[in-house]
Amino acid sequence: MEEVGHYAVAERCAREALALQPQDLWALHGLTHVFEMQGRLREGIGLLGDAARFLNIYNLFRGHLWWHLSLFKLSQARFDEVLDLFDREVYPQSSTFYLDVQNGASLLARLEIQGLDVGLARWERLAQASLRNATQSTVWFTAMHHVMALTRSGRISAVQSTLDYLSSTGTRSTQAALARELAQAAAAYCQAKPREALERMLAVRQRHGELGASHAQQDLYDQIMVMAALQLGDLPRVRQLLKARLSTRIWDAATWQVYESGSRRVDEAHDTASVRAALRWDVD
Question: pTM for this one?
Answer without folding.
Answer: 0.94
